[in-house]
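Take a look at this chain, tokens included, and explain the fold to me:
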Amino acid sequence: MNCIVAQSGGPTSVINSSVFGLVEANKDLNIYDNVYAGLNGIEGILNRTIINLSEMDSAELEVFQHTPSSGLGSCRYKLKDSSVCEDEYVSLMSILNELNIKAFFYIGGNDSMDTTAKLSRYAKDHNIDIKFIGIPKTIDNDLMFTDHTPGFGSAAKFIATSTIETYLDSTVYTDNGIFILETMGRDTGWLAAAGALASVGDKKAADFIYLPEVAFDTIKFINDVRETFKRNNHVYIVASEGLRDENGNFLTMSSQGGAHDKFGHTQLGGVAHYLRTLIINAGITNRVKTLELGVLQRCAMHSASKVDFDEAKMVGRDALKYAADGHSGYMVAIKREETEVYSSSTFLIEADKVANKVKYFPTEWINEEGNNLTIEAIEYLKPLVFDQPAYKLSDSLPKYRVFRM
């Protein structure tokens, strides 16, 4: 009997280590004869673009585990409910049956857990002996029940590092201006919150951090920035792309006129420029620089977290064990252990409880002014960015390997 794994949604720096953890665990435990991989997610499986990872050279897999982005390719394929369209389910189950698949592992976020739940329910209703397990992945850290998600720690480390470096760059003159760093985060502020980790000596780099969980107050923003600029001749701001006004509307949409992806999610961007315009129009200063970190947040292996890498491998490894034990329709979640030195373990949560829901940044971790974070937030974030994975180099540059076509 065999199993299959696929990746879905946005990439992360450590998503491939989950695949590696699964393949490595199967080599050790010898549960399945072959670990197949669908290229470009469930869409690739339906198109029969499938490879056998068990036949891959072990040295290539070692490089693959430290490769950022989705090394098997990804997709944003919305699986309809079987009551609406059963053809996809019939086709998929037929392909899986041909390959003698007994376990299907889907690595992704909210929408991927929705797919996992739907497939598990269909298999159960039709007495199909295939287990479906979701493996968490998203830099947004917005999956319910899990303490955090693989991919977030590395993104947080990159953001904190970028905050330190650009803070230093923006403070070199006697007559400095204002610097605005924009992070991803359509619905939640977890990524922007990582800016709170950035310090130079005892000085916090970010004067202000703005998250979507608190309605953006334009007047207060202008007053706070004006006062700080008068005092320090410099202001550093970290802002989430998903900032909203008091009516719940995004401050800005993408230049594509509020475009949406295949899952109906609004595509955002431009908050830093929006804030820059507010500052200039308020007459505070014209010296305002902005930086939108963009996709670097999800592919910067050079600034990845070893804790994140190890946990991504852990959830892949444990997913295999859970499926072998007969579990189906679940997501592997991470539990933060109550130990003096940070450690974690996994547990199972029903995928349909995670699907299409959002874990927001706790508002009690945002200061009373709504423009920075509390010590509790920093203590939560600190262990997730710890240490650096050792990736291979070629001619002094990172050596990477993907298997997608």
In short: The longest strand covers residues 101-108.
